[in-house]
Amino acid sequence: MTHFVDHGGTGPAVVLLHSFLMDGDMFAPQIAAFGDTFRLVTVDERGHGQTPVDGPFTYWDVAEDVLAVVDELGIDQFAIVGTSQGGFVGLRVALLAPGRVTALAVLGSSAAEEDPQVAEAYRGLGTLWTTQGPTDQLLDMVATICVGDMDNSAWKVKLRALPYERVPVLLDTLTRRDSVLGRLGEIACPTLVMHGTADAAYPVERAKEIAETVPKGELVLVEGGAHFLSLTHPDAVNPALRQFLSANG
Fold first, then answer.
1. What are the Cα distances from residue 14, in Å, to 52, 199, 207?
2. What is the pLDDT of residues 171-216, one digit of tens each?
3. In a domain, 76, yes or no
4. Which end of the chain is flanked by fewer CB atoms within 10 Å, N or C?
5. Which CATH number is 190's domain given?
6. 121: in domain
7. What Gene Ontology terms describe what this protein does at the molecular function level (predicted)?
């Protein structure tokens, strides 16, 4: 059963999809900023937060999970904001249900498959995690990639509580994902692509290829922004998101 939180409101519906190893709580800055304007729904993606995982899966499966959530809530049309992994899922939701997604914001993400060398390094981290546990050194390595120099103490508490057996499954999904670059032209909804210039996971080129290929793409770069952009740089992200969602929600 996919865990979600409907934060209420009578405005246009916006589904918020979190990054790898995070959960819906990472959108606290956005909920505080414009939860009174939109009906925000946070979803814990498969294997994250309070949503279980019972075997291998793909981000297409997670996209189907998201559609099941909005169906359960009786929401026909909705916008999506996805950060990193949430962007992988958001792109796939837009491809599966083009008539339902009114707008798509993709932050710190990619439409390409994972670079093979990076994938191998990530799998090595997963091996360390399952054999040695989430040590401070390991968590600091992951945090440096994801949140830069932001205080990561609260996140570390969450990661230590993550069941060990989930990590290889989650990493397998991440590192073996398929590319959707060849299908970006099918995404007809307005698409905002935001990317930090200091993103340590994906270069700015990954953002540019999305913004330049979707028919209604717009690119916004955040100077010095880290990978988990919506969490680390909300003062730069929130005004652009509010404007985009207000115009297209």
1. 23, 25, 21
2. 999 999 999 999 999 999 999 999 999 999 999 999 999 999 999 9
3. yes
4. N
5. 3.40.50.1820
6. no
7. hydrolase activity
